[in-house]
Predict the 3D structure of the following.
Amino acid sequence: MPAVCLCYEVHEPYRLRHYTVFDMGQNSIYEDDDRNCDILLHTAKVCYLPMNDLMLRLIQRYGKDFRFTLCISGTALDQFEQYAPEVLESFQALAETGNVEFAAETMPHSLSFLYSREEFIRQTEEHAKRIKRLFNKKPTTYRNAELVYNNDMAVCLNELGFKTVLAEGAEHVLGWRSSNFVYSPLGLPQMRLLLRNVPLSMDIGRRFSDRSWSQWPLMAETYASWIHALKDAEVINIFNDYHVFGLRNTAESGIFDFMDALPGLVLANEDFTFATCSEIAKKYKPVAEIDVPEFMSWDDAGRDLNAWLGNDMQKDAIHSLYALTERVRSLNAPQILQDFERLQTADHFHNMSTKWFTVFTPDRPNPFQSPYDAYITYMNVLGDLELRIGAAEAEQEKMGLEGHVRKKPAARAMKKA
């Protein structure tokens, strides 16, 4: 019985304001609060609230037969709590049904595994605890930011207790094999590796509103027939950004009607069902190991890291950021730590991409006029952060010296007595 596995990324970055060299040392307000609030409220109105309402109605309609997985980034949770608590409540309503699994990732939606294993572990554990606190669900499935994955990451996640990890069904990794089966990471037979069915995911994520596509307009009946044609599959992993509902594909495109009809059409064939990632991991044994020595992602072009680390600006920015890790972590400075973590969000580096800058993504537009503006702004912010770190270190050292001086007289008095 093939299982359709729906998994959606829910992510909202904090966008930086236009921060110049003249701001450095003068103020440390890095984020564009007005813009972040406006975008979040718009997204809540056209995407999150109507889509969560639809998913709740589908669960009520089909009961245990309709199930799916969500992965909500820490920065999205922050903004829900800050700007639109009703969105968080709508996700909690979904959690209460018992039909929704919540996967873990890094708290700030970062690429930290590439640069700091300790930072990655901290952020992952922090996110898992927050998911448990907000949704009463302990994550056992891991979906890294941008589906970035390799063999070493699986080893680390296994040590952290995760049972399942999600990754891209990249052709250069799969070869002749199909993404429609359960695999295990290299050397980890106890773990499950679920690979995205790229064509079916892209049909909704990229092509649904493309009027030049031969299958436009895509009807739910047609899409269900494509799923039913995979009768020899074990699992059909359809992973997408939640923005495909209402933002990337507007309500006028018919995307909500499409999703409203799809579960019933899929379930009309009794050989097919819906399942969460963890349910699939428990039900199916791996058919083989998948070797992923190099990092891959769900980037549309090369399934690699070029969208975030493809030019010297991006590399310089991210190396400069992670060079501050030990200094930040050694301080007792919560605001500096928060700013440091939010600066790790992968979107900041994507904004510096020269190759993809001209690609228009309606749901995630670049807030800068050019990748060079994005880089200059980011490095100005990083420069100010380093000034603050230096000042905090000096203050911490001063406090330590003063404490040492205060203790000496007491020690001498004891010796004299």
